[in-house]
Design a protein that fits this description.
With 970 residues, the chain is α/β, with parallel strands linked by helices. It is built from 31 helices and 27 strands. Helices cover 43% and strands 15% of the residues. Helix 7 links the parallel strand 8 and strand 9. Helix 13 crosses helix 18. Catalyzes the reduction of ribonucleotides to deoxyribonucleotides. May function to provide a pool of deoxyribonucleotide precursors for DNA repair during oxygen limitation and/or for immediate growth after restoration of oxygen.
């Protein structure tokens, strides 16, 4: 663990005043003395070419970028296109991840040294190397503005989340428009509370009626839409909050409902009202998330069925009484109809407020995770939880408590340093952020971690592990904040708020002590968290705290993809089968790697695991998976699908971790289209009872604008007919299907087509005969090497029989190929096969040759196996795939293409005719689209403005898996 050097704190300021102590001693976590983290990984060159799948146009292209070999294609694409600085094609353009990480970590190190954070230059170097290692290995990520701006000549804005304020004056309202616009221009988002503005039921000093906040929302909405269309690749992210006791609250609740009705009328009249459509801009209030801020007085009136007073803004007197239950019903009806407004629980939020003497918390950022004082900002970073799961591959697992705590300390230190050199969009935000130093450490991959450890997302065990990790993270962050206060002084506002801040720390510690321990995984984490909170209370009393806030749970959209996370923020897994891009181009669908880990944790054997994974790959779910116990089904429940997690399951997870989050949680509770208004009311009510700070709901298909637009009634009718036909086929298949778990051997007939191939590997000669079923598909393999009766010949015979029997019992050839390619032993080396020039062993060669002869292009391309012709085509065109014109030429020249062509031609020709008669299959471009294809549903997420692919939800925002664009502020 890192520790603070001894020395009295003398309250130096973050502005760069004298340090009051000797600084931090930094301990190594991952790095080796004398070895740079870059020298411990293998670097490869990648080409990044990103296209819009709708029209094939190239959105971004940069070839020859340098990344570690273990980085996924998607992560490489997103980091290169989003975070590399400099104009593409110029010498100033970054071309390596090394340059990007150096640009950031060297800036942090220099600022840390300048502001006396470190005890010595050796500690500063360790800090730099550890930070570089953690970023390089995707252990954590800063929020996007850090990657965009730090170390560049442009203003070094490091915050993603902003809260503004507006008063009841025209000057303040116009300042609001300007400040919000500048934040949008920089690609970030902002939120504010409009409740100080007089209602339309109150008088102006001149005697006329005030316009009310809803009218001023129109101008801000138009401004946000214009700035977005002026060059941004995502919508302007903004949050508008109104207190439930504001006299215009009913107008605020109904703003989007009325506009949604307008959209329906215009759509039926023939206007293009789809998301991104030409005419959607004619409706109002579409560029903001709306939330009602309710207090305990109102919620208790709802419970009791009493009245509730709406108060004048200037005097505070009640000018109208309303039925609380009826008003709550209107909030639920509006959310049911169009997903707005969300809800924020004012008293709960302010009960956990560390700085009440400096003002109440009245608003949040657009995604609802950052909640603090007006005119402030928050710098975010998120840890990849799967990097801390220790798994021996046989079911024995643990969470690496010690390393997790050390990384939290490292990241919190870096985040606090960033405030020393950061720039801010307005003077007020800069002054307040430097005075209160709000940080937002959080995490991603919680859903993947829970599944991998055999915990259902909606279970007591899952919630206990999530709560323990969250408590340890925030407790460790505040402990480091107290240690930093001893070195460089507490935040400026601490003295005024010391009692309140220490009271909130005690609340966190008390909640930790009362939490229920469930199993061998969460109990050690709770123990470490308890120790951390004891240190927080002790050190805070002595030193104070460097930061007024430590943690939030953000959507982690773009950065989650950059870290190759399976799940974002606090979200569960989207589905069990994912869409994965491949290095050589193209893509494939894979079963989540967390599924086998979960099955091992649950005690299944490898043979059972393979059967269950194969079932998931084919069906997309675990229902009726061979050998899987029904009580384990819940472990594999996801956000979408036949076994989707219930809405209250999402709320219970939020409640389980909220006591140890300084801010709040970015989360939208998805509800099925069949959900009722009463169910929305129940969620909003139960979230209040459970202590959640804020949430929103989204009912499927409640929006008119659909992501996949059908312009005419005929097209829509055709789609409905297709869906009905698919449903009938599914039902018919379910009735007719006979499930047989025992494999049945399918023997080859007496006469069978075959190919005999001679080969040489490293000077060793041999022959391979591969025989097929008449209806296609490899059925047996014979291998001939060395003299009859020799050990090698005997082993080859035995190996051939084993493989052949496996093929006849239904083991897919691609399974053998994936297992045996790249196996290393002698003889190895050059071959006489132009398609496989080098082989690492005879077995490696044999299965590469079989893949080329018998597997379809997409399958073997996913395995990295290509013919000489395909490799040449890739060098010339950048793609391994044949064009349509090439396919036509190859059919004519099939006889000359290879010796095996004649034998396969009789089979290939009739199969080609059958395939030609089939309609072109629908293609998926993201995991969200793949899930839709499997489940036969349409998720009404928006299409990405950059590349046209279907986005998926991340917190209260949407994220594009293809290019990393988000619809929010993360």
């Amino acid at each position: 663990m890192t520790e603070t050097a001894s020395g009295p704190a003398r309250g130096s300021r973050a502005k760069g005043g004298k340090a009051g102590a000797k600084g931090l001693h930094i301990e190594r976590i991952h790095t080796t003395p004398g070895v740079h983290p870059y020298d411990e990984v293998e670097w490869v060159s990648r080409d990044v070419v990103m296209t819009n799948w709708r029209d094939g146009s190239v959105n971004f292209e940069q070839r020859g970028v340098e990344f570690p070999d273990f980085w996924s294609v998607n992560a490489v694409n997103i980091v290169t296109s989003k975070y590399f600085r400099g104009a593409v094609g110029t010498p100033q353009r970054e071309v390596s991840l090394k340059q990007l990480i150096d640009r950031i970590v060297k800036t942090y190190r220099k600022a840390g040294e300048d502001h006396k954070y470190f005890a010595s230059s050796a500690d500063a170097e360790i800090f730099e190397h550890e930070l570089a290692y953690a970023l390089l290995h995707q252990i954590f990520s800063f929020n996007s503005p850090v990657w965009f701006n730090v170390g560049t000549p442009q203003p070094q804005q490091v915050s993603a989340c902003f809260i503004l304020s507006v008063d009841d004056s025209m000057e303040s309202i116009l300042d609001w428009y300007k400040e919000e616009g500048m934040i949008f221009k920089g690609g970030s988002g902002a939120g504010l509370n409009l409740s100080r503005i007089r209602s339309s039921k109150e008088l102006l000093s001149s005697g006329g009626n005030a316009s009310g906040p809803v009218s001023f929302m129109r101008g801000a909405d138009a401004s946000a839409g214009t700035i977005k269309s002026g060059g941004a690749t995502r919508r302007a992210a903004k949050m508008v909050v109104l207190d439930v006791d504001h006299p215009d609250i009913e107008d605020f609740i109904e703003t989007k409902v009325k506009e949604e009705e307008k959209i329906r009328v215009l759509r039926d009249a023939g206007f293009d009202m789809d998301l991104g459509g030409d005419d959607i801009a004619s409706v109002q209030y579409q560029n903001a998330n709306n939330s009602v801020r309710v207090n305990d007085e109102f919620m208790k009136a709802v419970e009791d069925g009493g009245n509730f007073g709406l108060r004048a803004r200037m005097t505070g007197e009640v000018i109208e009484e309303v039925d609380a239950k009826a008003l709550f019903r209107k909030i639920a009806e509006a959310a049911w109809a169009c997903a707005d407004p969300g809800i924020q629980y004012d008293d709960t939020i302010n009960t956990w407020h560390t700085c009440p003497e400096s003002g109440r918390i009245t608003a949040s950022n657009p995604c609802s995770e950052y909640m603090h004082l007006d005119n402030t900002s928050c710098n975010l970073a998120s840890l990849n939880l799967m990097k801390f799961l220790k798994d021996d591959g046989k079911g024995a697992q643990s969470f690496d408590v010690e390393r997790f705590a050390k990384v939290v300390e490292l990241v919190i230190t870096a985040m606090d340093i960033s405030i020393c050199f950061a720039d801010f969009p307005t003077q007020k935000i800069g002054e307040n952020t430097r005075a209160f130093r709000q940080l937002g450490i959080g995490y991603a991959n919680l859903g993947a971690l829970l599944m991998a450890t055999g915990h259902a997302y909606d279970s007591d065990g899952g919630r206990a592990l999530a709560g323990a990790i969250t408590s340890l993270m925030t407790g460790t962050a505040y402990r480091r904040s107290a240690e930093l206060a001893a070195v460089v002084g507490p935040y400026d506002g601490y003295a005024r708020n010391a009692d309140a801040h220490k009271r909130v720390m005690a609340q966190h510690a008390d909640a930790n002590g009362k939490a229920v321990r469930m199993d061998d995984l969460d109990t050690p984490v709770w123990a470490a968290a308890t120790e951390a909170w004891q240190d927080v209370v002790r050190l805070g009393e002595k030193n104070g705290f460097r930061n007024s806030q430590a943690s939030v749970l953000a959507p982690t959209g773009t950065i989650g993809l950059a870290m190759s996370c399976d799940t974002t923020g606090v979200e569960p897994d989207l589905a069990l089968v994912k869409f994965k891009k491949l290095v050589g181009g193209g893509s494939m669908q894979i079963v989540n790697g967390t599924v086998p880990q979960a099955l091992r944790r649950l005690g299944y054997q490898e043979e059972q695991i393979e059967a269950i994974v194969a079932h998931i790959a084919e069906n997309g779910n675990v229902i009726d998976a061979p050998g899987l116990k029904q009580e384990h089904y819940e472990v594999f429940d996801c956000a979408m699908g036949e076994r989707a997690i219930s809405p209250m399951g999402h709320v219970r997870m939020m409640a389980a971790i909220q006591p140890w989050i300084s801010g709040a949680i970015s989360k939208t509770v998805n509800m099925p289209e069949t959900a009722t208004v009463e169910e929305v009311e129940e969620i909003y009510y139960e979230a209040w009872k459970l202590g959640v700070k804020a949430l929103a709901i989204y009912r499927d298909n409640c929006k008119v604008g659909q992501p996949l637009s059908a312009k005419t009634k005929d097209v829509k009718d055709a789609e409905k007919a297709e869906i009905t036909e698919k449903a009938e086929d599914t039902i018919r298949a379910a009735v007719e299907k006979v499930v047989e778990y025992r494999p049945v051997r399918k023997r080859l007939p007496k006469g069978r087509p075959g190919i005999t191939t001679s080969f040489t590997v490293g000077g060793a000669e041999g022959y391979m005969t591969a025989n097929s079923y008449p209806d296609d598909g490899l059925g047996e393999v014979f291998l001939k090497m060395s003299k009859q009766g020799s050990t090698l010949a005997g082993m080859m015979d035995a190996f051939s029989i084993a493989v052949s029997v496996g093929l006849q019992y239904g083991v897919p050839l691609e399974t053998y190929v994936s297992k045996f390619t790249n196996m290393r032993f002698e003889p190895a080396g050059m071959t006489d096969d132009p398609d496989v020039r080098m082989a690492q062993s005879i077995v490696d060669y044999i299965f590469r040759r079989l893949a080329l002869d018998f597997l379809p292009f997409e399958t073997r391309s996913a395995l990295g196996i290509h013919s000489a012709e395909e490799r040449q085509r890739h060098l010339e065109t950048g793609s391994y795939e044949q064009s349509i014109e090439d396919d036509e030429v190859d059919v004519e020249g099939l006889a000359q293409s290879a010796p095996r062509a004649q034998e396969l031609k009789a089979v290939a020709a009739p199969r080609a005719e059958v395939e030609a008669a089939k309609p072109a299959p629908k293609q998926a471009h993201t995991s969200a689209e793949l899930v839709e294809m499997q489940l036969g549903i349409q998720a009404d997420a928006p299409l990405c403005f950059s590349c046209g692919t279907k986005m998926q939800r991340a917190g209260s925002c949407y994220i594009c898996e293809g290019c990393g664009s988000t619809s929010g502020c993360s």
